[in-house]
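tool_call predict_complex ligand=phosphoenolpyruvate
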Amino acid sequence: MRKQIVAGNWKMNNDIKETKKLIKDIKKGIKKIKLKGTRVLVSPTFVNLTAAKDKVKGSKIEVVAQNMHQAKSGAFTGEISASMLKAIKVKSVILGHSERRTYFGETDAILKEKVNTALANKMEIIFCFGELLADRKNNNHFSIVESQLKNALFHLEASAWKKIVLAYEPVWAIGTGETATPVQAQEMHAFIRNLLVDKYGNDVAENTSILYGGSVKPANAKEIFANPDVDGGLIGGAALNATDFVALIQSF
Ligand code: PEP
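tool_result ok
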């Protein structure tokens, strides 16, 4: 059975003090609610991962990295490897976020390599993808999403999908305050699940969590998460506020 997941992508926000405080507040907040099996993920910057790992102890919160390099090690100044993450017991990584694609030139081909490296290191991947506004306006959104998935993930064996969480994030909805309507979200998530059925069969399709990301807030989460093919959210802005984040966890 696929899991419901609420994942906070903190991006380049929160120094160490703020990281600890936010985790403390989320911990306090989720103590008061029933998680009902929902996974709660937070993704601080690399420098704060160790402190975050320490701070989540005694709670169900999982700590996730925002990125990693595809190479094992070597002359890649400023980069972080999978084995470095594993050494501090970070077992999941976000790959393919639109900001990585847009500002750091991550292509489908690079992401395919990152996916392979993460899996070779037994890491779980939260794989982000989604169309630009122009793609949607030109009615190319389904074909863009299909090619992003095929190019970076569809070379994998069915067994690898136990380690993959998908995060559909229409780029026009990220940090813009504009959200896909529940109908648009469900339509795309059903399309994605059907791609998985066609390529891998029902088992993989039914067991893969597909998250929605793009300006999810407590005010709109319930109707987005209520869709049968939406298994939770990847949250940017609203994940930086403990009260909002806990409210999102309660929105199933
Ligand atoms: C994101 O960065 O993945 C995201 C969805 O951001 P926001 O919630 O701020 O749109």
